[in-house]
Each structure stands twice: as C-alpha cells, then as structure tokens.
Predict the structure.
Amino acid sequence: MTSPAPITAPPVLSGPDLALACGVTTLPVSALITSPTGSGKTHLAREAARHALLQGERVIVTVPTKALAHEIAHTWADLPGRVQAFTRDQPSPPHRAAHVLIMTPERLDLVTRRWRRHHPWLARVGLLITDEIHTISDPARGAALDAALTRLRATLPFLRVLALTATCGNPRVLADWLSALHIGGGIRPMPLTWTAKAVRAVADKPAALQRALTPGESTLVFVHGRQRATDLAAQLQQAGHASAAHHAGLTPDVRAQVEADFRAGRTRVLICTPTLEVGVNLPAEHVVLYDLTTFGPDGRQALTVNAAWQRAGRAGRPGATRAQVTVLGTRAEQPGQYERGRFEPLSSPLARGEHLLGFLLGCVDGGYARTRAQATRMAQQTFAAHTGTLNAPRAVATLLLRGALADHGGVLRVTPLGRVASQALLPVPVVAAVRVLPQDPTVLDVLLSAAAHVRLPSLGDESRATLVDALMGVPSRTLDAGTAPPDAVIGAALLHAATHHGDDGAAGLSGLHVPTVTALREDALRIVSAWHALSPSISVNLTRVSLAAQLPPRAATLALLSGVGHVTARALTQAGVPDLPTLARTPPAQLTAARFTARTAERLIGAAQAYGPVPLAEPTPASRARTVLADPARLARARLLTVTPTAQGWTVTGGSEARTVTRHGDALTCDCPDGVTLCKHILAVRLHLT
Amino acid sequence: MTFNGFIPVLTHRYPLDALLTPYVERYAPAALMSAAELRAAPGAPLPALPLMIDSGGYQALDAHATVVDTGAFAALHVPGQAPLTPLDVYDLQRSARAAVCFTLDFPAPATATTDERARRLHLGERNALWALSQIRPGTLYASVQPGQDLTAILAARPDGLALGGLAPHSADRDRIRHEIRTVRAQLPAGLPLHVFGLGHPDSIHAALTAGATTVDSSSPQRMAASGRAWTGEVIPDAAPHERLRLAVTNLLTALHADVPLALHPAWRPLTPRRSA
C-alpha cells in the first residue's frame, strides 16, 4: 500500500498577484489595487499597458512628478510601442506618435481642457494607469488629478482605469467612484520592521537619529524642509556618516549625482524631503521618519499615516536582508501610532476654494458644460462630490461675476479672460490683474505686478537688500510712485536678477537654491504669458521673452524675432549685437565673422529691419529721483549704510566697499561703479541730510 | 472587397461625426461617405478605414433638384452647387481610393410624377451602365430603386447592387424585408446587396436577415444629437461629450457589437456607498 501524496495547500494570492491571476490586466474592467510598496504594482501596470498596446490601444499613465514621468518612460521603453513622457520640457508635443504617454495630473488636466483638439489621439486611449492615486487627497495638487480623471472618463466612454496606491483608508469608496474592482492585500517581499523611539524634546532628535543609524546600512531620513535636510546631512557628515541631502532644491545634475552615490553605496545616509515620498525609485534598507509635524496654512499638522507609510515603503531594497523603519518623535507626536497602519480615507480638495472654480471653468472652456445643469452634472462626477458636497451653481455664479464666463440666454460661454485663465491653469483674478498694470508700463512694472501673484521664498535681509539695490536705476513707474508692496519689490528684484544673471546668478545673489529661482521665474512666466495672451503689449511681451530666455530686456528684444530663441539671442549678443534695433543696422559681415552663416545673417538682419522700432517705456530720471525714496525696500537698504562727512563730501560705509559721495551744485554723485543716478550711497546721504 | 453588416455614414459637416470617427475606425468594418461631401470639403482628412463612396444621388430628393440628360449619361443639378456627373463621381471615388463605389442614380421625391419617376429610373440605369463599362475605380455597386428591372444592369456584371428608396419606410420592417427579398431573388448567388439609409437596429436586423449584405446610416449620430440612445437613455440637454457617448452606444448597437462593460448601464462592480 502506497501512502497518499502529500496535499499541498494552494498559494494564497492577494494584491497584484491576485489581480494578475484574475486577469485584471486583460479584462475590460477598471481596477483599484491597494497593496504595499514593493509588492508588484508596477509590474502589474506594465503588463496592463503591454496588453492594451497589443490590442491596438494607447495608454496614458499619470505620475505625481515630471521626474517620475521621465524615469518611467525610460524604464518602460521595451514595451511594444513608443513610450514617452509628455511634459512641458518636451521640445514638441509627442502625443501624436507615442503609444504610451506618461504625464503629471496637471498636464492631463490641460489635455482634457482641450479635449476636442486632442480627440484624434485621445479617443484611441483605452487604458489609464494612475499611479499613486492617493495623491488625489493632496491639498495643493489633488484637485488637478480629480479634475483630470473626471474629464477624461467623461471624454472616453470605454476608458479602463487601473489605479494604484499603497495607502488608502477608503478603497471601497474610491473603487465605487471609479466603477472599479478593488483588489487589496498583497505582500511585501521584505516585511517592514517598525521601531518607535520617543524623545523628550525635538532638540533630542539629532542625537536619537545618530543612535538609530547602523554603520554601513543604506538609510533614508525623511524631514520636512530643505534647510533641515542640508543641516542634518552636514551634522551627520561631521559625525562620520557618509551622508547627503536630497530635495527639490538641488539642480538636476546634483540630484542625479546624489542618487547615483546613494545607489552605489558611496553615500549611506540620505536626508530627504517628502519629494522622495513619491519621487524616483531609491530604496533603502532603513527608513527613519524624523519630522512628524508639519506647519501648513492650517497650523501644526501631524504627519498622516498615509504619508508615513509612503515613506516607510522605501525601506526594503530588493535583495536586502532587512527593511527597518524607525519613527522618532516626542510623546505628543505619538511615534507608535504609525505602525498600526490605519490609513486615512482619501478625499479630494476640488470642492474647496479656487479649485472648484478652476474645474468648472475648464469644463466650460473644454465644451463639457454649456448650461448650469451640465456644469452641475460634471461637478457631480468628481471624487470631491463622491466623498462630500460641493456647490456648483454658486461657483458658476462666481465665475460669471468675475467675468470669466458670460451667460447668453442660459448658455454659458467662456470669455477671453476665462479662456486664458483656463489654459494657463491660473485663477481668474491673477489673469485679470493685467488690467491694472500702470499705463505705459516698463518691464520692471510688469515684473512687479507679476511678483505680487507668486509665492515668494523666504530671504534674509541682506539678500533682500542686495537684490533691491539692482533695481535702483531700472525704469519703473510703479517704483517711482512708491506703490509697490515690499514683497512684490523683492519678488521683482529676484526675477530681475534671473533675467540679468540667469537663475544661477540670481540664486547666488539671493542665497536660494537654483531650482527655487527657476520655479519662481517659471511661475511668473506663466502669469506674464497669460497676460500677453489676453492683452498683448510690447512691455508684457518683452517681459515674457526676458523671463523665458533669461535675458535682460535689451537683449531679449532679439528674441522677439520669430525663430530666435535664447541661444541665438545670446550668440548675437556675443557677436556685438546688444539689441534688436542694433541688429537691424548690423553689417552681415559682423555676424558671419561670429560664425553665423551668410544666409542666417541675412535672414536675421532682414527680420530685424522688418520688425521696426521697439518702443520701450522709460520714465524720466527726475521723477525717479524724486519719488524713489518712498520705496520701503530701498530705504531699508540705504539705512543699513553709515554716512560720515568729509572735506570733499561724505564717505559711505557698510556695503562691500567704502564709497565717496560729492556734491556738484544741487546734484550728488558717487564714485561707485553702479553707474546709476541714484545709487544706495546717494540715498544714504540724502537720508543723512534729512 | 465586400463587407458585412452595418456601415456608418460619416460627413465632414457635423462635429459629432468628427468625434465619432475614431470609434468608427476602431469598431466598424468600413465607413460610407458621399462623393458630394468629398467635393464640398476637398483635402479634408479621410477616416483611416476602408471607404464606401456613395455618389451623392440622394440629393435628387431635393425639391429643387433637376436631372439633366447629357447624352452619354445624366447629371444632377442642385441649386447653388456645380452639376454632379458620373464622371465627377468617378474621379472623387478614385481619388479617395474607395473600396466600394456606387453609381449615380436619381431617387425621386414623393411628390414626383410617375413620368418623372420613370425618367429618373431610366437615367439612373444609364449612368450605371456607363460606369460599369469604365475601368472600375474599386468594387462597383450599381445603384437601383425598388421595383426596377434589373436585367440590363445585371448583364453588365456589377460587383454588387445597392438598393435605395427604403429610408422613408424604415419603420415598416415588413416592407423592408419584402423589397430586399424581391431584389435578392433576382441576384446571382453571392452577389453583395447594399441597402441605403437604414439605421434603426430593428431595421438593420430586418434588412440583414432578408438578404442584405450591408446597410448604412448616420442614425447613430442623429439619435445622439437629439440626446437619445437606442438603449433607452435620454439626456435632454446633452453636452458634446455626452452626445459622443450616446453616439458610440448607438454605433455599437447598430453594429451588434458587444457593449464594453464600461458603457453597460448595469456595470457597477460594488454597491454604491455615496455620501450625502
């Protein structure tokens, strides 16, 4: 008698394994997969994309950041189709040729606002993969994802959605909204081991961190600020740890180097900001949750369980022997609460503030709503409405009041103002601000107005003063009138520096990170471009070009020519052509001597001659001298200086070098190299005399 | 080249047709366009799928249209338009690389006299015989009307026949079946029979079961434009994207295609848990 064969229990499947086993990648249904980081969601998404491509469909993938879009485009390049990131960095829109388009929610939001234009390719999209769908709860960016998903699903009747997340407290609600199957569970190949360490005070955290680190172990330490990351990394270096900071303030090259060093083991401890929470794939053996409290518009806020687990999910490098998570917190911060993993329910911020207005404006602009009833129907399709309430009629009324929409006998139409705001993804009042620019504005006036609508990074007093100094001789009716708010002056000074010295130079002058300056300049550029679209004028256009090309206004006039970008404009400047009027008078030989071809030289000169004069507004120096004292930022800088009377006039100290101011009749002159009629030293003397 | 089943009609005139085109390209075996439409929008992009190019003879139903005998063939004169001759139709079909072409016939409006009706039938037949004697730009179907003597046309060996004149009787499925069976009985086995202008799913079913090979209509879009789907869904003030969804639903219904789950009204994988 033979003994029976042992009975082997079938494998228990869950998460992505279960989804694959159920054929979710091939079935014509939407699916929400909630499973831990590292459990195979990305593999599942790839397989779903592969199957869609083989069916002749196109695929859209949404990811939280542009960097991730490029990374996935790179790693998915072997799929049977053209895979491409669709970001503003692309030299030309790739959507017509690409089969898999990877983009941020903001880009998809914009695409759906122009769905009729994109329809020929968009209608071929059969699958939307939306990674990190929990970001729909993000107060700042979640509304764009909600809006984009709502519009896309309305546009594409057959669209299947594959939504992926590791942290979602209300998956049934989310799945219901998506009309999707929900498959949860899933197993991490390397289970997380949590350790909560309570400290008596926040000041004790650095020492606790050092005790928590194991030499040689790859570790990510999550903090909330760039400065904290930099300081902590330096502190650990001094203590002998191979550490570095990783945050959005690093230039792409530096960041890539930091990541490469970490992957190669040259750096063992990376102090990172939440950027890495949804950033590039950079797993470690050990994750430390260092900052458990944030300070936002609503005051102190505890780190959410969702965010904690997103960060913790970085632990568990493939092939590693351990996946350790250490939570450092005071007793008030309850570091032990996170291990339980009770995720918060997701909800969308779309119903709040300007988000709903922007969504509805985009719906009218995109042709989704021509009546109040249609607008309400669209709003009811959002995740915000699914998880709460929103007041679409009131939002439509606000848009009508602001002049973004017009009512023609019950039919809603988007006005030129509304269209520009919608396409620029800007609030209506920001675009409407072009109407309150001073009459005959200068470039600096435009910068001052734009700066009032961008979020200014914090700057030290010395940096502020240095930046504002550069504005002393720059023509500006707003500055002369003394009506510019101090923050706007600082913002404009920063933008002015970026146009004259590039983002690098402005960062050096201000002490900011280069990407911070770049982000500020790009925000201002978006506003000024919208103004130019709504109300074109030479000053606004010149400011737009100046911001885009990072060139001073005079050199930027060269880039006003069609087909001349910043590279050519710079080359012309180096060839001794400082501006457009000069180019019109330049002999072709001068350009050919600077390596322009004869044909290009002829074309450029001809285009400059055809362009005609560039009328630049410039207030008279007298009015500047008279009223500039009213500007508080300039006064603040001048007050920092010390004035000492001498036999020849005055010695002014406190700046980089001592300067001499002398009197000639009623006029004061200074020996500083600023070359302006009213430098900070003369201002200081005037203050001294009064 | 032959097709089977429902063939949607596309024009360049309506935005909804442009929105529906990618779905027609994906789900339909071919699309039907009119030579008159092609002439009205020269250079406009054509759908990326095989095309059946109708002559545009349906314009003869215009109360002010006249049919002029020019000798070798007959031309259609519609006020405000250049005359449409079989030669024009031939050129348009060839330049559009039509998979299936139709000859220029002249359906008569209900108000036409018996003599005019007979004259148009005769001239339509002459056009068909002229076209069938040329080098064919593609598979060539001769356009005929109910009750017409098919002897001469069949002798000219058309690649198929196209029966018009049934659209006004779309709701009368018995008549549809009768007229199609009558024509089918005269045709050699295997010769394709196309029927113009039937879009209601029941009419399509009646035509196909009676022996039609293909039928065409723009009904999916026209229904959707009025906010209705054959599945019973009605949206009184449908927005463009909603009309598109209704049109896609109608298209798939007309094609007797499987409706994807995403479009199926019963598709709710979970019990809704809507908050207030």
Confidence is low (pLDDT under 50) at residues 269-276 of chain B. The interface with chain A takes residues 15, 18-19, 21-23, 26, 237, 239-242, 244-245, 248-249, 260-263, 267-276 of chain B (CB under 8 Å). The radius of gyration of chain B is 20 Å. DSSP finds nine helices and ten strands in chain B.
